[in-house]
Design goal:
This protein is α/β, with parallel strands linked by helices. The chain is built from ten helices and 16 strands. The chain has one domain: 3-Layer(aba) Sandwich (Carbamate kinase), CATH 3.40.1160. The strands form five sheets. An eight-stranded mixed β-sheet has the order 5-10-2-1-13-15-16-14, sandwiched between helices. The chain has a two-stranded antiparallel sheet with strand order 3-4. A two-stranded antiparallel sheet has the order 6-9. Bound molecules: adenosine-5'-triphosphate (ATP) and magnesium ion. The site of adenosine-5'-triphosphate has 21 residues, from helix 7 and helix 9.
Amino acid sequence: MDKLPIKESFPRLEELRNNHIVIKFGGNAISGEGELQRFAKDVAMMRSLGVLPVLVHGGGPEITREMKLRGMEARKVSGLRITDTQTLEIAEYVLGRINREIVKALKGAGVDSMGIPGYKGGLLHCKRKDPVLVYDEDGNLATIDLGHVGDVESVDAKQLRYMTLSGIVPVIYPIGIDYEGGHVNVNADTAAAHIAAALQCEEMILITDVPGILTDVNDAASLIKEVSIKQVEDLIEGGIVMGGMVPKVEACRLALEKGVRSTHMLGGKDAEHLLRQILDGSHRGTKIVNG
Ligand SMILES: Nc1ncnc2c1ncn2[C@@H]1O[C@H](COP(=O)(O)OP(=O)(O)OP(=O)(O)O)[C@@H](O)[C@H]1O
Ligand SMILES: [Mg+2]
């Protein structure tokens, strides 16, 4: 077995084999039947090579769309959605629907998978998020209560290991449970980072609707190929990294600090041949590194 050609061409496979890899994708990143089927095939390939994928998905754009259809206005602070009771209901409904589509695509590609909301079996245990401090329109500091939004406190990694070691790919959506048994909305990137840390996984990949961190959001050619956590802080302070990109880089920082070995961001369109990109290091996105 040692001399399999795949080992010759992809030395990284040895590090990934029998290791978890957390892949998170946003609502806009991989959508529609064709893209989902292609992604499902990649996951099937990972499984057949002995890599243990754990999937986490968001659904931000779809939740916003559904809210608009119901005449509601979506509001976010620092990339986090203000979540009142009705918004939470919509988020759960939309994420549940996306989750079923992903599981269906995976099953179609022959991948045993199981959709799991983060609240199930205490998978994502959370504390209600404290109100956040922001400047209001007049430049005064104000506190904003985000509502049913959670900070992840613990992840039941055992539950996930049972699944992956039984050949099942978990497909998680980030509605956690708080200490009173209530459901809370968690940013999907943040949830992925906590999951990746709890599994001490080899790699976390965040697939999104842009190719990675851009110095100019409107110019895909302004992609930053590699960036350190310290440099990212400057990018946030300089207003270059904003909105939904903020929790994404914070997620990479958290994962790296907690022992995840490697973190990448990748555009959905560039996620073609995802595994190959991971294996030969030819990924087209942004690699976030410690330092
Ligand atoms: N410097 C930057 N480089 C790239 N994207 C940026 C930057 N600053 C802000 N963004 C925004 O971040 C967005 C990605 O985050 P967003 O939360 O919208 O998507 P997601 O996390 O992939 O999906 P979901 O929230 O559904 O899980 C991009 O579409 C872009 O508008
Ligand atoms: Mg997001």
